[in-house]
Amino acid sequence: MLRFVLVGLIGFTLVVIGVVATVGGWGWWALAVLLAFLFAVAVYDLLQRRHSVLRNYPVLGHLRYIFESIRPELQQYFIERNFDGRPYDRDVRSIIYERAKGVHGELSFGTERDVGAVGYEYLVHSTAPVPEPDTLPRVRIGGPDCTRPYSMSLLNVSAMSFGALSANALRALNAGAARGGFAHDTGEGGLTPYHLEGGGDLVWEIGSGYFGTRTADGDFDPVQFADKSAHDHVKAISLKLSQGAKPGIGGVLPAAKVSNEIARYRGVPAHEKCVSPSAHSVFRTPRELIRFIATLRDLSGGKPIGFKLCVGSRIELLAICKAILEEGTAPDFVVVDGAEGGTAAAPLEYEDNVGLPLTDGLMTVHNALVGTGLREQIKIGASGKVATGNDIVKRLIQGADYTNAARAMMMAVGCIQAQRCHTNKCPVGVATQDPRRARALDVPDKAARVQRYHEATVRQAVQLMASMGARQPGDLTTDMLRKKVSPTTIRSYTELYEWLRPGQLLAEPPKSWASDWAAASPDHFGPVPRA
Q: CATH classification of 138-507 is 3.20.20.70, yes or no?
């Protein structure tokens, strides 16, 4: 409403000054011309659909683009300092925005990274690169018990719920996914029409609150689940065990964002803080988890079922593997969420101090599945600050089959990381339930941005692999990712980390895994209780 008041005020002032100018001097005419220019700019800003900031903040919003135009110094100062505590660096932000806009961006004057610093990682190129494939590689998701497998892109939209994001943001993400042929994770806030109307492939995420498939008491409702999971656009179901930015606690949606509509889709009271439990009520042990996954697969008609977690205890992960072996059925995929993942609804202590980073969590899950002989039937997704082609390639080398991105997709749809998500006052209409702010986000324009960003990023990943001599992801090896560990020493990931052999935990666990393997039980999360 304020934007219309501002434009109206400029227009009214213009009329008054115009009347005064007819009897005044040239100074009044100059002021009238200036006001006429501002009024024209304001009207244009309200009507154009390309820039959400200008639609919500006519005239004033141009300051942001002025700062961007004189980057890097002022852009770095005025914009980056308003980002979260662990922002993307300027180069990564530029890559996301430029790819979304369809601009082939390249940086002048070489790298700005200190490539000689300890900790620097790099991909190993080949003296004999191979040609890039014409078709982008995909990953088949679906184990022996899955009758309706899904072909997954190397990069997909990570979990973001309706409530956290606006309806228009979800429409744009889903329409972009439909255009680009990649998957869109719904987040744990329920399966809504805004996820469905764009026609994109969906991974329906179900959290501990069972939003969208819950009884009046908050328990899991198998009838609702069977009905909704049968939708053609739902290609897979992901059971959320924990989230990277806040492992061990449930999600929170502030009361200001729990509209009547959100309450209806989630099955909760309107205008009250919506809190999901920290743990699931349907299962309490690894064995019960695996049985529940099998139940979900049956109810969905054989679609791929998996779970998402931020890795904490290796014992618990091995307990799940033992449950899989004893029950004789397995999830079709596991999404590893790194502790560096972002959210607007996590205590600072959790964001910075709980859970394994993606690199460590990913390699832990990969090794656990390899060591128990389960890796071939269970695919692994990686989520946590994935934004560029090199991020995808690194995660594939570290054990992933595909990746998911949340923050980068939000930026492609227009997010400027203003950190106002929890206030319901997102300046660009991405993370708000205020319809007056959300209207600024033009769905067709932003859907095209999402599709362009995805395609350019995956193609860059494929180009990088070709430069490394890999025709497909399966050709990548841990020798191809190296790290400078001291001023004079460089080691490959093969040398730096332990990699288990297929079935090694079943035959003869190495000393580094033996105690955790012995402590893991399919009937307990955590070590086997002492007698």
A: yes
